[in-house]
Structures are given as structure tokens and as C-alpha cells.
Design brief:
heterodimer; A: about 350 residues; alpha/beta; Rossmann fold; 5-stranded parallel β-sheet; two-stranded antiparallel sheet; 11 helices; 7 strands; globular; B: about 325 residues; 2 domains; 7-stranded mixed β-sheet; 5-stranded mixed β-sheet
Amino acid sequence: MASPAKMKPNQESPANLELFYRQMVQIRAFETRCNTVYRTGKAGGYLHVYIGMEATAVGWLNSLKLGWDYVITAYRDHAQPMLMGSDPVKLMAEIMGRKDGYSQGKGGSMHLYDIEKGFFGGWGIVGGHTPLGAGLAFGSKYKGEDRVTLNFLGDGAANAGVFFETLNMAALWDLPCIFIIENNEFAMGTRLEYHAADTELAKRGIPFGIKSERLDGMDVLQVRQDAKRIIDWVRKNQKPYLVEIMNYRFSGHGAADNDRQLYRTKEEEEEAQLRDPIARMEKYLLKNNVMTEEKMEAIREEYEEWADDVLEKADASPHPDPSEVYDNVYSDMEPEKGH
Amino acid sequence: MPTTNLTYREAVRACIIEEMDADQNVFVMGEDIGRYQGTFRVTQGLFDKYGPKRIIDTPIVEPGFTGIAIGAAMTGLRPIVEMMTMSFSILALDQIINHAAKIHYMTGGQAKVPLVVRGPGGAANQLSAQHSHSMEGWYAHTPGLKVVAPATAEDAYGMLRTAIHDDNPVIFTENPGLYGVKSDIELGTGFSVPFGKCRVAREGKDVSLIAYSRMVSVCEKAAEELEANGISCEVIDVRSLLPLDTETIFASVAKTNRAVVVYEDWKSGSFGAEIAARIGEECFDDLDAPVGRVGGLNVPMPYSRVLELQCIPNENDVIAAVQKLG
């Protein structure tokens, strides 16, 4: 296994530094509203927020060719489309099951898609989407395009049989797919050491000859550097890559998870908060005179208001009409109707 | 155009070749389909003709390669996945049912999955319990899939074209007992058979025998013997399970007032049971007798040829079911 890259002096422009900070704050504000929406009964089912993990998506997705490259992930899927330019109101409307959502209320929080922008979901079967992601890379390679596919999965999915099958074929067929295992230390309520015989998940790629690294996911600038380097390599070499990103979710597994102390202590959570990617970035911005505390506070307030506005607009969207239930079962016909 | 006399196997292959020549986005993947020429030789010669980019030998991992085909289909490619036998597709049920079938719906119509999953389904010759299963009922249960089971070489040729052109995932099941049956086929004309239309394989007036895939020829044999005894059978080849042409089935029952549904799948909980239920729901006033069913025995397929033949419905089982209607 390659050793993690050493932190290099930061090469980001002040504009990029502000952008990454804004995006992390924006995601957190959006996700906080999602929790509210769930608690107030305006979203049902299962809903999984990205709070604590923002640096991972921000670092990786800013390093893609947006509108060209492909992204697929599991059900913790709100942040990625936001970073790819999807309309946050349409995302929130989908999370609330409304007519103006990306899937007109057929998908919900776990199944967000913006195919036009290259975001392919949004999947609910742990590990089940990993071959689909390899298939996206297969498609672009078959057509002779130089797209890269980011295939996000969680540490729980890293045990799935179909994931191992996919790694084998990705290596066998040189698919330009980056498998990004977001190791937030818990597969739902089961801690890493209780679900994985070998907890160094980056090793999953090694038997298949896939270049594999374990990387930090809480420092957005480090994530960004790693992401750029790896995406460039995959685009150029048209081969797969595997990374294990060490991050942590501050919230429960899903919005319905009110029993975090069954699998982790308050002390552990408090310690993890010290790695908060947003607070860490704030320290960096202050120390390097990129931004003042006042400016950061203004940005945070800006996104609080923005998120309220998104929620209000999404909430104004009507529920789907019952007659729409049969739409899009097929592209060219209706299913049999009636109970 | 002159016709060519082709076996079912050759007809499937001929359609694949024509469609691969017409569209670069069509490719085939599966186990031993390339260098080994396919277990049932359906893909014979294709590897030499198209090479490894478009005729892809996969590892023996149905969930993984089916998932890759689904992802590829979402980018606009048109994969044809061969299952070495449909029994093996059980491993890929999560990919087919929980992913492929639901993608168009879950994305609100944003994504399409122009995927064909084809292969032999049903009993061959002593392949025993894990290689002989009929899977079409499991798939025809699933909204979002289309499911076809052609009984003749001509229909296999014409329906595979429809399947490849379809923007939705299609399950295309080929009973291994049919690979050698022949039809005269006009090649190169783009001939296709639409889904959702039954074929009236034989006209009759006393009883409707409703079947698909290899059981159509079993019903035809039974019909010949019954004709000699003065019973006129109409044989309906359902050929497309989903969508299902209930109109033709109900019209036939309205004409004959009797129906027997015949299928190789396990008798209980099968798609044949679904057809029988539909007739019961919609044709009650037309029926002079309860709807009859002839299905496979409710046992895992045994190895012994004697026991295997006992499990698969034959013309005598059909004749007995017709006679039981009175």
C-alpha cells in the first residue's frame, strides 16, 4: 500500500479557499434543515445526513470535470449533487417527496439523481451500487471518452461480495473508476472492528493490483490535493484506483437514529468534534489571514438564511398527484393498473 | 427476400449479429460466451467476428457483471447479458429486481436501462436441481421489467430485436429444449415481433390451451391427439409475459369457454397461476368449467431422467387436464 501523501504547502487560490469553506458551510446548513424536516414530519422514510463528512465530498468533487465526469454513491447522497450544480430546491423537494423534486417524489432522500449533470444516485442496497459505478466507467471507456467515475461507498459496503467482484472486473478491464470508501467508522450501528476482519479497508484493492491508499478525509485542503492527484492519474492512465477516506459522521446513521450511545460514547463524539472539518478550515483561514472571523460569521449567517429559503421554496411545492403513481415505471408503456 | 431455415439457437445469434452490425453500442457479456463459444453455442463465432471489446468473457460472478451492464446501459450502451442458465440469474436478483427494474422510476424518468438479460431457462437434460429452473415467473412479477419467452425460432429472432431496441430492461428466456427447433426466417429485413401480443398457434373451438416457450409445442401435440378424439383445441402462445396480452387470451376463452394454462415452472405461485387468476377474474361468465392448470411438479428438479421427465409437463398431462374439464 502506498503511504499517504505528505501535506504539501497549500497551493489553492484565495477564491478557492473561500469556495471550499462556503461549500462545507452550505452542506451543513442544508443537512441541518434536512434533520429539521425529518423531525417535523415533512420527510419520512430513511434520511442520512453528511454532517462531519463535508470535507470529503468538497475535496473530491471540486477536483472533477463537472458536467463530464460521473459520480455515484449510496444513500448519504445530498452533498454530492449540490456540489455538482444541482438545484438545492429540487433536491430538498425530492427529500420532502414533492412534485418538483428530481424524481417527482418517487425517490426521496436515499434516491437523488441528476443524470444530466453526471450524478447517478442515490442507492439503498449496501454495496449494490458499486458495480453500477464500474459500469459507468465501462461505458465511458467503451466509447473512448476520458471521463472518470467516482464510486463512493461506506465502510459497511466494503465487506459486500459484489464489491469484491466489482474490484476484480475493474482491474481486469482497466476501468477508470475511483472507489472511495468513506470510512466513518460505523456500518450503521456496528463499529468497524466488529464488522471488518481487517480494518485497513484500503487493503481491499491490493489483491486485484489496484493502486490503493488510506487518506485523511477531515482536512479539506489535504483531501483536495489527494483528489486532484488521483483523478489526474486515473484520467491519464484509464485504470481503477481505491482510496479509504478516514472521516466521521457527527450525526446518527440516519435521522431516525436516536440511540448513538448504543454504539459510541459521548466522550468519543466530543473527541471527534475536535476534527470538525469546518472548524479546522476556519482556523486555517484565520491563521493565514485569508478571512476574518467577521467574514466567516457573515458566511455562516448567509447560508443559514439560504437554507431557510431553500426549505421554504421546497415546502411550497405540491405533493404529487395520485395519478402520477404509474408514470415512469417504463419509458414507453404503463404498468397494469389497479389493486 | 429468400428465407433461411434456422434453428432457434442460430436465429438468436443471427439477430445479435445484425444488431451488433447496426449499432456499435450493442455488446454481449457473460460467462464463456467468447473464446469458449457459449455453453449452448448461441454465441458461436461472435468472438472471432467482433473481438474482446464487444464479446466479453466475464468472471463467474452474476451480480457483479450484471451490475456493470446496468451501469453501462445507463450511459447509453445496449448490453446483452447472457446468463449461462437462468437459474444462475438468482444470484443477480438484487441487481435485476432491486436496481435495473426500478431505475427509470426512482430517477423520475431521468435514466434508462436498455439491457437484455437472456439465456436458457428451464430443464435441459439431467442438469438436476440447480441448473434447470424456470425464472420467468419471478421476473414477470416485477414492475419495470419486460419478460418474454418465445416458442419458435422465428419469434426468438423477431423478439430479440425488439428486446435490444427496447429502452427498458428485458428478460429474454430461451428454453434449452428449443435450441434445435427450426423456422424459415427472412434475414436482413429488420423483422421484429412486438411485445404484448400473443400468437394463436392453432385455432380451435372447444378449449383454449394457454402456454409459452417449450410448452407451446407440448400443447400442440396434445391438441393433435385430442382432435382425433373430437376435441378441438385452440393453442395460445403467450410469448410475452410482461406486458401480457390478456385481450387475445380472453377472446379465446370467450370463444371456447374452457381454458387450461400450461407451464414448466413450479406449479404453485407461478406466472401460469397468474394467467389462470386473470381468466378467473375476467372471464367467469364465459367459462363452462373451472380454469385448469398443468405445471411442473413442486419439487427441486431431480437428476434421474425418469424423475426429471415426471416433473416436466407432457402432452399426456395436458390431455388429462382437458379431459378433467368435462
